[in-house]
């Protein structure tokens, strides 16, 4: 019989309070496309991660470089809640180590994603209604095969809470949530821009950092401009305007004494306008490989059967 999950499973209890006072049953988000039921935030944490409790500090505009438009919250999530959020999401979400093939110079190359990934959401042409995917305009059940390859997964409550708080603070709308887990300094993401056509012109992307501090590097695509931010736990960067079309960004590897940093989670909220966005995000963040979950005892990701 599965062990009953309580708040004790995620956060260390206080020695000054009775154990009974710490136990807070955790409900779950359910969907047929989930590999397992995903735990909801305990009520106390959900409240702490909702307005007016966040953002913790107002955002600061960074637009002093050519074509750059950022709103930097340092932090958006308070330190204690950022740590709780990191531990919770690492333990409760399904993760994947996606492999895919691309052609470079006419030669097919296999790419192994150097980080753990997962994704939830659905593009603007459709929406979830009672757990089923329907056309956004007609509300008729989608049966044209557009999502046959990867059944979309609705954003679970634990991420939906943060999505709503982000929308309230920024005035932007998001329908996708991508989560990256960098287990150590060896995990990284190379320079890239999120400028795919399915995001529309000048997309806005909210990017959260939880856990270990990592350097966030940016460089202009054509001009000799660059930026480096040391992102601490709870920080959020809102990238908007021409930032994606004119700039690249990356999280480089860390070596030496900083390589085993305890791990970092990156959450990005974005808005896909067409079904190509849904196909792309599930292909590169879930794929066809095995699913992994965090093992609290071994302190590592372990392959699980879906």
UniProtKB/TrEMBL annotation:
GO terms for molecular function: broad specificity oxidative DNA demethylase activity; cytosine C-5 DNA demethylase activity; ferrous iron binding. PROSITE patterns: FE2OG_OXY (PS51471). Transmembrane segments: none annotated. 2-oxoglutarate binds at residues 180, 182, 192, 249, 264, 268, 270. Residues 173-273 form the Fe2OG dioxygenase domain. GO terms for biological process: DNA alkylation repair. Residues 1-29 are annotated as: Disordered. It comes from the Eukaryota. Substrate binds at residue 195. This is Fe2OG dioxygenase domain-containing protein. It comes from Akanthomyces muscarius.
């Amino acid at each position: 019989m599965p062990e009953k999950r309580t708040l004790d499973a995620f956060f260390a209890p206080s020695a000054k309070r009775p154990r009974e006072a710490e136990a807070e049953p955790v409900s779950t988000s359910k969907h047929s496309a989930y590999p397992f039921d995903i735990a909801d935030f305990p009520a106390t944490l959900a409240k702490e991660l909702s307005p007016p409790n966040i953002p913790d500090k107002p955002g600061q505009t960074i637009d002093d470089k050519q074509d750059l438009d950022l709103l930097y919250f340092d932090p958006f999530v308070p330190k204690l809640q950022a740590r709780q959020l990191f531990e919770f999401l690492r333990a409760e979400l399904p993760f994947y180590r996606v492999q895919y093939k691309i052609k470079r110079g006419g030669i097919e190359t296999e790419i192994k994603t150097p980080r753990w990934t997962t994704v939830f959401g659905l593009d603007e042409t459709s929406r979830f209604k009672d757990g089923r995917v329907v056309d956004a305009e007609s509300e008729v059940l989608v049966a044209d095969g557009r999502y046959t390859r990867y059944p979309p997964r609705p954003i679970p409550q634990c991420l939906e809470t943060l999505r709503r708080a982000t929308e309230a603070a920024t005035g932007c709308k998001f329908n996708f949530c991508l989560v990256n887990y960098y287990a150590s300094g060896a995990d990284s993401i190379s320079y890239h821009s999120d400028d795919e056509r399915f995001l529309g012109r000048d997309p806005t992307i909210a990017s959260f950092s939880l856990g270990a501090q990592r350097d966030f590097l940016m460089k202009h695509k054509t001009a000799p401009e660059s930026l480096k931010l040391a992102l601490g736990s709870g920080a959020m960067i809102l990238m908007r305007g021409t930032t994606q079309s004119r700039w690249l960004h990356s999280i480089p590897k860390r070596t030496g004494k900083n390589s085993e940093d305890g791990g970092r989670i990156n959450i990005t909220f974005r808005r896909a306008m067409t079904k190509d966005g849904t196909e792309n995000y599930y292909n590169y963040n879930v794929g066809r490989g095995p699913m992994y979950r965090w093992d609290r005892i071994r302190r590592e990701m372990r392959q699980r059967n879906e």
